[in-house]
Design brief:
The complex is a heterodimer. Chain A is an alpha/beta fold. Chain A has a single domain, classed as Rossmann fold (3-Layer(aba) Sandwich), CATH 3.40.50.300. Helices cover about 30% and strands about 20% of the residues of chain A. In chain A, the strands form 2 sheets. In chain A, strands 6-7-8-3-9-10-12-11 form an 8-stranded mixed sheet, sandwiched between helices. In chain A, about 45% of the residues are buried. By secondary structure, chain B is mostly helical. In chain B, about 65% of the residues lie in helices and about 0% in strands. Chain B contains 11 helices and no strands. Chain B is elongated. The chains are: A alpha/beta, B mainly alpha. Chains A and B meet through helix 2, helix 3 and helix 5 of A and helix 7 and helix 8 of B.
Chain lengths: ~325, ~300
């Protein structure tokens, strides 16, 4: 399928190889459901140590599933996840424990991701409790230290999540993710539920923590401007597959895939004079369902440039040089 | 508007340093900090019926515990010379045919009835929460098998197996509790199952999984505490239903044997003299009614207090 390796030259920290995650639809009492929702279908990329890898796409394109599968909240249906060289695709819970310490996640909804019946201290210390790190009094001290690290007061340790605002809750979620000193964090739309003023705070904090601890991020978002700001490389997903992957400067200036072009043309521009000039590329139709997708290019139904070949053969990611990969027949 | 550039020429650099995140006023929360259970108690306290029910129930419980100790009579002391006496200053609720003090017997009956209610509710709680929690959390086939077992159990005619259990094990408090618990945990189990099914895909359950927590750990630390509201409500209504079932069975003659007394057996004994000495029936039935009302009001109050949609 893949003509060119999307891997950067240095050894990657996290690597997805032809990653697939299918969900059975309408599970029955007996036997297996015949329909599959192909949330992620053959996604390959590699994230280098210390970089921020952006993953963009519209709602339902599978970007959250990629993030969750990568930290093994889901077991991949096919393909492999390699973390620091080790294949973790099918490890069980006990075998995953060392990995759990190294790879963490920040969730999209700061209201749903904190247990409302636990104090902030218990929430932050949960990874430490489960993994039995920082035993005894050190655990409490560590929770206070983490709260201070994310810009909250250490005295807030005995409060409950409902006493905090959305931005503060997201900081608590970040403190929990940092508890076990991870090196890789999946940020699953960490700012989409926040006010714009708070978004900047959280993103700045993510960047500061990255510098301080040498963190590696997978930044999942539909906010193209924010992804452009924070990421070094960006992958664009459509219906469970990556259609284009490039360093951020290349992607936002010389995007090749018709979907990326349409997607980026839809991003709001802060300057009204430039916004008036910018040509929108409107897309016809809706996103097709990922349940039993037809052969051929998944985007062809909405693509303004579709040719007959698009209906027959699914385009593979091809290397355009300089780490720019794009899956489109028109580029041959 | 005219702006004088001179006035802005010598601003110190510190004025442009970012404000510390922790000190920002716009992130301050005005509402005083309250825990979930403080909120629940505040709402419960505002419900007059529930508070009245709670007070009456505490009185009944205190009377059941200490009343028999303070009374000069015992529940089993027979005094043929003073049989069938109406209420008086010596015997507040009168005496029965054998001259036993009905006041003490009603209080003693309260011990039995309340014990049966509370023990049955606790057993229901434990079985129901574990059963429903496991069914809801594991889901799929385990859930299907467990829920079909429940369907079979609930299809059995309750009076039949209760009588069978009582005959096999003899008439004691233990066998009554066992008989009452045989299927009454099903309601709790179903409530817990549906709550757990809903909560297990919540983001905080995912976050817990991400820490490496085991299924049992997540169930125990996150899912069950978060469905405590519905669990407590269903338990609160189980207590009166267990007490009432025990009274009903005792009234039919299945249950505690004389000289021990529950409210149901007292009512049963009073049938014979219902037309001539109705007070013998009145006091135990009144005790059942008052307790039922109190418990149901408490249950209603708890349900309203635990419902987060009413949160102000």
């Amino acid at each position: 399928m893949i003509h060119a390796s999307p891997n950067p030259p240095s050894a990657p920290l996290v690597e997805a190889q032809n990653l697939c995650k299918y969900f059975p639809v309408r599970a029955r009492f007996f036997g297996k459901s015949r329909h599959l929702l192909k949330a992620v279908d053959g996604v390959s990329f590699a994230i280098e140590k210390g970089e921020t890898f952006g993953l963009v796409g519209e709602s339902g394109c599978g970007k959250t599933t990629v993030g969750r599968t990568l930290v093994r909240l889901y077991e991949p249906t096919a393909g492999a996840i390699r973390y620091d060289g080790q294949d973790i695709s099918h490890l069980n819970r006990a075998a995953l424990l060392p990995f759990r310490r190294r790879a963490q996640m920040i969730f999209q909804d700061p209201y749903a991701s904190l247990d409302p019946r636990m104090t902030v201290g218990d929430i932050i210390a949960e990874p430490l409790r489960v993994q039995n790190l920082y035993p005894g009094k050190a655990r409490d001290a560590r929770a206070r230290e983490l709260l201070a690290l994310v810009g909250l007061k250490p005295d807030h340790i005995n409060r409950y999540p409902h006493e905090f605002s959305g931005g503060q809750r997201q900081r608590i979620g970040l403190a929990r993710a940092l508890a076990g000193n991870p090196e890789f964090i999946v940020c699953d739309e960490p700012i989409s539920a926040l006010d714009v003023s708070i978004q900047a705070q959280v993103v700045n904090m993510l960047e500061a923590l990255q510098d301080q601890f040498g963190l590696t991020y997978l930044f999942v978002s539909h906010d193209l401007t924010m992804v452009r700001h924070i990421s070094r490389r960006v992958a664009v997903m459509y219906l469970g597959a990556i259609v284009e992957l490039a360093p951020v400067a290349v992607l936002y200036k010389h995007m090749q895939h018709p979907y990326t072009q349409a997607l980026l043309s839809a991003a709001p521009v802060a300057d009204p004079r430039r916004a008036a000039q910018a040509a929108r590329i409107p897309l016809q139709g809706d996103v097709p369902t990922p349940i039993d997708p037809p052969p051929g290019c998944l985007f062809r139904g909405r693509c303004p440039k579709a040719v007959p070949r698009c209906a027959q053969e699914r385009p593979a990611l091809r290397d355009l040089g300089g780490g720019h990969l794009c899956a489109c027949h028109l580029l041959e | 508007m005219h702006i004088d550039p001179e006035a802005y020429a010598n601003l110190p650099a510190e004025d442009f340093a970012p404000l510390g995140d922790a000190d920002r006023e716009n992130e301050q929360i005005a509402r005083p900090s309250t825990t979930y259970w403080q909120d629940v108690w505040a709402r419960f306290r505002r419900d007059p019926l529930a508070m009245a029910g709670l007070c009456v129930l505490i009185l009944v419980a205190l009377a059941a515990i200490f009343g028999p100790m303070l009374s000069p009579f015992s529940y089993e002391d027979v005094d043929f010379l003073n049989g069938d006496m109406g209420p008086s200053s010596a015997h507040w609720f009168g005496t029965d045919r054998l001259g036993r003090d009905i006041f003490v017997r009603v209080l003693y009956g309260a011990r039995i009835s309340l014990t049966v209610g509370v023990v049955a509710a606790v057993i229901n709680l434990v079985i129901g929460v574990l059963y429903g929690g496991i069914a809801g959390f594991i889901g799929r086939r385990v859930d299907m098998v467990l829920m079909r077992i429940v369907d079979i159990l609930i299809g059995l005619p309750s009076l039949l197996y209760i009588i069978l259990i009582m005959m096999a094990l003899g008439s004691s408090i233990q066998s009554i509790v066992l008989a009452l618990c045989f299927t009454s945990w099903i309601g709790t189990a179903r409530v817990v199952r549906s709550e757990v099914m809903m909560l297990k895909s919540s983001e905080y359950a995912l976050a817990a999984r991400l820490t490496g927590a085991s299924d049992f750990d997540i169930l125990l630390h996150h899912l069950i505490p978060n469905c405590m509201g519905p669990i407590i409500v269903s338990t609160a209504f189980l207590i009166p239903s267990a007490i009432f079932s025990e009274a009903f069975l005792a009234f039919l003659g299945i249950g505690i044997q004389v000289p021990m007394a529950s409210w149901g057996t007292l009512a049963n004994e009073a049938i014979a003299a219902l037309s001539s000495r109705p007070y013998q029936m009145f006091f135990p039935v009144a005790a059942i009614c008052v307790t039922m009302f109190s418990l149901n009001f408490i249950g209603d109050g708890l349900r309203d207090a635990l419902d987060p949609r009413l949160k102000k």
